[in-house]
Amino acid sequence: MLNFADTNLSDMKNKQLLLGDEAFALGAINAGLSGAYAYPGTPSTEILEYIQENTLARERGIHSYWSSNEKTAVEEALGMSFCGKRSIVSMKHVGLNVAADPFVNSAMTGANGGMLVVAADDPSMHSSQNEQDSRFYGAFALLPVLEPSNQQEAYDMAAYGFELSEKYRVPVLVRFVTRLSHSRAVVVTDEPTAENALHYPVERPQWVLMPVNSRRRYPRLIETYEELKAVSEESPFNKFIEAPDHSTGIIASGIAYNYVMEAFGGNPPYPVVKISQYPLPQAMIARLALECGRIAVIEEGQPVIEERIRGLLGAPVEIIGKLSGELPRTGELTVEAVEKALGIQPKERRAMPQVVVPRPPALCQGCGHRDVYNALNRALADYESPKVFGDIGCYTLGYLAPFNAIDTVVDMGASITMAKGAADAGQHPAIAVIGDSTFTHSGMTGLLDAINENSPITVIISDNLTTGMTGGQDSQGTGKLREICLGLGADPAHVRTIDSLPKNHQAMMDLFKEEIDYPGLSVIVSRRECIQTARRHAPKK
């Protein structure tokens, strides 16, 4: 296995200023990547975008297309791994919920070529529905987890992760957080290595998850996980850092390690166990508990480590962190929060410049979603207690003033299925508003349910011809949404299309009311290109 412990900057030729996402992507390319799969979502989007634009990736023909959703992405990456090639799949944290079925079962099949699953968590919910911590999925699936603390580790962990995956024949979960994904640092890069040749699994039965095979495979997976515990103790990314004052010991994981080092000016007086590879290095933690009077657990996200060590340590040891209240349970960690938890005198820092003015999110001027909501609000004014079920995308902003147009937003695709459930309960009107990319991500199956029962709901697909919320990536349904709906079995007479333009305001109102009054399923595709992508596509003068 390659040694990443002693990276000497002066001995390396190449240095680049990279986002954390970009550093990992480049590391994967240079480590012999053959295929990258993803669904766009902040803060993971830049991983695939970097690969798509990278010169070497293009020269090698590395696969780098957007998948329909995170589940399909994991399955595609697993298929490439089956053939012995190295693959990555990237998504934001809630995307791992969508991908949970193949992800957990990939631990049972194992990997052939190295397979890395990147989940980018979003503490503080900068662009997300929740603050879930992907490290739970690693322990749940019995898979190793890598958690880089900086951009250099993000780069190095790609090659290391591939080798770990291939040596132990399992996928590896890589956990990012927003602050790492979207901050830049200088990264020292290596020379690219060749891609793997095609080769197939020796143990064919474990790739067929019938009960008879799975029962044999599962004990082996548990054994492998025990082996991985020993690997964590020797990992170049986990460290026991000595210090003279043993009144407190610190456990710091991932990016939280940087906050600890900054709080102490790079020289903490207490011993520190830095954790960037899981399962937890239990021997390091036990040593820290034995030597120190108390343990402070500093981690970004949920108290994953803190909960675990309370069960690991036999002797009673005082543990402070998120569960004990010294650190906040919600939001991103800050250096100030770490200083307070550790009793460090806060340092003077620059105040936020007054020129930085908060700007609430809003739909762009010229956005077609505006015309949809304006017309829909007018159309629904004549009905008693109408309910509009929203979805995940730019159009989620229809909840805010001045539209105040939607009643629910839960997860990708939930607009259609919640509208159907509401109609089943007797709600009328029940309207679903969903975007084109979200529809092909996870709205189609819900629409099939509604078609099969001819549910009395109106589905408005607000089609801006792109995945607008994450930067204008390709949308899988562009130009074929009507055909998809018809293919699922929708009544052609009630699959309607209209251009969402101000001049069509009255026509949109009339169409919405007509289909709302229809006592069955109707679909309206309201189409207008995203104003941002339209500007990029416009010819330069």
Would you kindly provide a written description of the structure presented here, covering whatever features stand out?
α1 (20-30) packs across α8 (151-168). By secondary structure, the protein is α/β, with parallel strands linked by helices. The chain is globular, with a radius of gyration of 25 Å. The N and C termini lie far apart (54 Å). The strands form four sheets. A six-stranded mixed β-sheet has the order 2-3-4-6-5-11, sandwiched between helices. A five-stranded mixed β-sheet has the order 8-10-9-12-13. The chain has a five-stranded parallel β-sheet with strand order 14-15-16-18-17, sandwiched between helices. It has helices at residues 20-30, 45-53, 55-60, 70-82, 93-98, 100-109, 135-141, 151-168, 178-181, 211-234, 256-263, 282-291, 304-312, 335-341, 368-380, 414-424, 436-453, 481-488, 505-516, 531-537; strands spanning 14-19, 33-38, 86-92, 115-121, 145-146, 172-177, 184-189, 239-241, 249-253, 272-275, 277-278, 294-298, 318-320, 387-389, 430-435, 458-463, 495-499, 522-527. It has three domains: 9-230, Thiamin diphosphate (ThDP)-binding fold, Pyr/PP domains (Rossmann fold, 3-Layer(aba) Sandwich), CATH 3.40.50; 239-341, Rossmann fold (3-Layer(aba) Sandwich); 368-537, Rossmann fold.
